Amino acid sequence: MTRMRLIFLATLAVAIAAAGWAARGWFEDAQRLSAERATREAIDAAMERESEIAAQVEAALADLEANERIIDRGIIREIEKPVYRRMCLEPDAIRLLNHAAAGTVPEPADPDDALPDDAAQAD
Predict the structure, then answer these.
(1) For burial by CB atoms within 10 Å, which of 8, 59, 76, 96 has the most?
(2) Are 94 and 86 in contact (CB under 8 A)?
(3) Which H, E and C letters describe the chain, residue by residue?
(4) Alpha carbon distance 2, 8 (integer Å)
(5) pLDDT tens digits for 21-34?
(6) What gap in Å lies between CA 79 and CA 58, rounded to an integer?
(7) Residue pair 102/108 in contact by the 8 Å Cβ criterion
């Protein structure tokens, strides 16, 4: 008899624990659902408010007339590239270009750059 009573009490305790577990799950689900509904209502209210504002702006824009004249002028842009500056050329190349523009013959900077005698008479 005591053994039967013990089994009954253990079964009752397990049933109470399971019922408590299920009730806690239902409670948490109800909280999540109410939070989700509140969020959805806030979003819907904001969208309705913004739709009304957008409708007012569209109505105001429809009443406006175009009173601006657009003058399209061609714009010429000169792109500055490093080729046009002295960044790419070495100082010796600039010196040679200056002598070529002046029509003079440059003197070699150091003797290693001098041309051999037979190369100068190739004409």
Answers:
(1) 96
(2) yes
(3) CHHHHHHHHHHHHHHHHHHHHHHHHHHHHHHHHHHHHHHHHHHHHHHHHHHHHHHHHHHHHHHCCCCCCCCCCCCCCCCCCHHHCCCCCCHHHHHHHHHHHHCCCCCCCCHHHCCCHHHHCCC
(4) 10
(5) 999 999 999 999 99
(6) 42
(7) no
The domain segmentation of the chain, as residue ranges, is 1-61
Q: Is residue 20 predicted with pLDDT exceeding 70? A: yes
Residue linked to tokens 């200056």: 98
Whether 108 and 114 have beta carbons less than 8 Å apart is answered as: yes
Contact 107, 95 (CB under 8 A): no
Decide which of 74 and 17 is more confident.
17
What's the Rg (C-alpha) of the chain? 46
